[in-house]
Protein 1
Amino acid sequence: MKFHKKPGLPPSIPAASMSDVVFTLLLFFMVSTVIKKFTGLVVEIPEAYKVEKLHTKTHTSYIWIDAVENISFDDYQISSLDEVYQIARDKIERDVQLLIFLRVDRNMKMGVLSDVQQELRKAGALRIVYGTKTKATPN
Amino acid sequence: MLVEKRKKTTAEIPTGSMADIAFLLLIFFIVITTVGTDKGIDLVLPPEGDVKEIPKTNIMNILLNDRGDILVDEESRFINQIKDIVKDKIAKNDKIIISVKTTKLTPYKVFVAVLDQLKQAEAKKISIAEPDK
């Protein structure tokens, strides 16, 4: 049996709307992109099951505390706890919605952290988040 | 005098390469986009100097020692028991405030694990007590 090839148009993908599609994607990525601001310190954050996603990065400042008790506040190396107060005070004056995101190494003790928290309380920066990874199962 | 009318040329922007430009931009943004990975346990600290008297019946104490052992209302417990105990307590008394007290040497990961348990038990009133000097 012989198959006859149908004479017809060569197959083609309409390219006219291609740029629209690409532009839409482009717009999406442009809007959703937040350029990373800080490098921070190397920390291994603990795990937790019931975590919440950070809603906004615009009102967020980061504090890193690594395993050897280096403290970094938005990439500014802290040498005395008083500076935590100063910086937090400055930031809360500029943005009342300020949220402090704490990235503390899992092998740290509570001492340094609670000192930092006391400074934040003094400065009035009360909304904090303990950064964690997500754990698959509870407990 | 004869003035010849110039032939009109219509102004046009070449659109053929538009898609290519858009593609390049698109690739740039895809590459630099990091999907938001900031997750954690949120908490609101009490304002400085804010001391409230709370009736003892409305407080549940969770104490963590230097080794990370846990004492819930004077009884030693494991981390994974906290959730159920707290759930029970809240069901009985919805005004209850859970006070977590650590020492300066309590491991941070135990503290986070306890907070995680409290969040799993839907506890809203959590208070972090200052470690003793």
Note: The longest helix of chain B spans residues 18-32.
Protein 2
Amino acid sequence: MALKINMGEFHERVEKGIHNTFMRGAVAGAQERLRTRRLEAAEELGNWEEWRALGEEIRQHTLENLDYYLMQLSENVKKRGGHVFFAQTAEEANDYICRVVASKQAKKIVKSKSMVTEEIHMNAALEKLGCEVIETDLGEYILQVDDHDPPSHIVAPALHKNKEQIRDVFKEKLAYTKTEKPEELALHARHMLRHEYMTADVGITGCNFAIAESGSITLVTNEGNADLVTALPKTQITVMGMERIVPTFEEMEVLVSLLTRSAVGQKLTSYITVLTGPREEGEVDGPEEFHLVIVDNGRSDILGTEFQSVLQCIRCAACVNVCPVYRHIGGHSYGSIYSGPIGAVLSPLLGGYDDYKELPYASTLCAACTEACPVKIPLHELLLKHRQTIVEREGKAPISEKLAMKAFGLGAASSLLYKLGSKIAPTAVNPFTTNDRISKGPGPLKAWTDIREFPAPEKERFRDWLKQRGNE
Amino acid sequence: MNVTLFVTCLVDLFHVNVGKATVELLERLGCTIHFPEGQTCCGQPAYNSGYVKEAKEAMKHMIRTFEHAEYIVTPSGSCATMFKEYPHIFQGDGEWEERAQRLADKTYELTQFIVDVLKVEDVGARLEGKATYHTSCHMTRLLGVKDAPFTLLQHVKGLEVVPLPNAHNCCGFGGTFSVKMGPISEQMVDEKIQCIEQVEADYLIGADCGCLMNIGGRIERKGKPIRVMHIAEVLNCR
Amino acid sequence: MEAFLQRIASRLGRDVRTSVERPKWKHAPQHTVFQGYSQDELLDELKKQCTRIHTTLVETTAGRLVDAIDDVIAAHGGGPIVVANDERYEQFGLSSLFTREDVHVWDHTLGRANIEAAERANIGITFSDITLAESGTVVLLNNRDQGRTISFLPKTYVAIIPRSTIVPRMTQAARTIRERGHVPSCINFITGPSNSADIEMNLVVGVHGPVKATYIVITDR
């Protein structure tokens, strides 16, 4: 799976999402639960805003000095006997990973959840090589078993599926014979995957936070799958987006605290694992060989621009969980593995405006995302900047809109034009008005009146009333 | 107290009663109302659509128009927020940034002004029935005015105010979003109306005409027996 | 690598940086959590948190530790058991554990046989090196005598927690680990049993790792 999920035009995807009743119920339920848990977890700390400020400060500092910290990370990984590869593009990353895998003559690969490997389409590259790649995160596993259904949520990838659907998929593909009870489904996955961990040649993980000072990587899960992926196979490959790094353990712990609270409302998830290099002398579990692949894939183009703050993201999905638009259209509508507000900001940057020009408009700018973000990314402002870019630099706005806005600029900047325009407005829409209401509006009003009534402009403007009354 | 009213374009053209109520209410609270005739629109429609150049023209015009005000009061959380954003938008633009800052510093949303500046919590209003209040996004999240409307509504005699479920969710207005993303907007406003119906409110009250036009327009289309009122109208009921 | 870093630097509008001073952060909310709490107060917080993470907490004294462990083992259906080769077992009078027939003591010279023993085991037992009151977390600094899989492969995981290891939160653990110098190849922060909410947001306890977790706190050490 690459960044892009190919599922037709934006408006078709939205239609499909809106009509998916189960998905919408699931999303609304998940949003409420995750939002409440996050708020409780934040409340409990009592000084959440200070935590956010610290999170922002750490992320900003790290991005401003990203070259230095990556160099430090790379040196320290090597000191501990690991290998580091810097990949400018998805192709470079996949080539390297495939080379390592081929050199081990590996056939079976177990993998823990990683957005960046989705983004670079790594599984397909490995499958082309003849390898079997097995997702071990329960949600990802379900999607993979179901013919690679795309994820619809950054943290809960299979959110759009109900347990009956999962049961049927398991029955068809995994010889499952039990009921749709989540416990039984999970137990079956446990049995299937236990065997895979024990027999896999290579384990591949993402990286929540790399620690520059110690050359470590941090993995955050509730299932413990990342631990088995890294403890049992002989070779470990960790793939990280180049911005997923902190200076030291002390910053890591702050960001992990922000991540787990924001993502799932837990003080810490069940397993936070910090891995440094391959296994040491005498150790019998852990990999013999450790490779760290640091991926740019379009990220450096964001640095130094007005969008730089989006790289502060720690992939907690708090913004997704409060987004009223995501709530109704679901993850697949975004056409990208990154959905919700973060997806609407990030996807056009990584994938271009041609594919993602609608996303910045799929927001009411209600700022719920900005308020929820634990590292204070001004998400709704970045959506606005996208709109500005589309209008000014990309020239992709419709001509009718450009004309309307030009007229707006003129009208609103001149009292005379405004007064004139507002005075003739009631007459202009008169043919469409019944009982002071417009039910079938002309031109741009039509999209409004398809859904709601529109008030006809009042015959006496407020200013006329005020004047008559004798106010200044 | 000298109050310069920024009535907003929506009120000027479509919701004249909200403007009237605002004037009468503030006068009753001892304010003298000034109304610069040159006022137009805060520029939000263009700004939020990405037309910053066009928006800035409108903004400069508004800065000039309101420059001499002592207090600027507006019956809209969203438009007040826009004024507050001006310094940010003119950042680095020397003279205009300063002028924008001065404008922002003296701008208040109506309920915020009554509670925080006039220090009044009971305006002596009366309205019989059950109401629920829609917390508009810009006013709550960006302007940070969360309590003032509730403080004032609590003191309205005869009015029972019940909490609106999922109040934090946007109503689906979002300016041009309501027409550009019609199908999504429709789902959002429908969920909002379901929540209003759930508490069996007679009135839906809000402090932003944009949201109220959206929710109200949909309520009307669906023929629901819910009356939509701006908080200025409620506070002006005797 | 040079080109990669060079590109970042040029995007940031400067040359590649070869040294950066880690700033003193303007905010430090993490230090205020449970500030000034006594060990007893921290233990109370740990107990509270355990009720929220599906973890049984047993309190005992050093003198009664053997019995407490036996009880926990029995309650979870007995062996096979896998334990670390850790001198603390002896210090705490737990040598008898090593002589039980159903106990595998991690022995790095045996290689992969250790992992197989862990896979077969019903219960895995380790000491907690640092314990976080706020989140109910045990921190394991693994090494060749304490394999990573002891705490992951068995169905039940048991952590022995000397009261003295309890600190307010991850902040103190992070500092300790930094100050220790050599960072172990694998550090686990374990908070209760494995779980997942990936199916319709229903919490399922016991997914890939342990299904059950028990903490035994030694209150006088």
Note: The first strand of chain A starts at residue 83 and ends at 87.
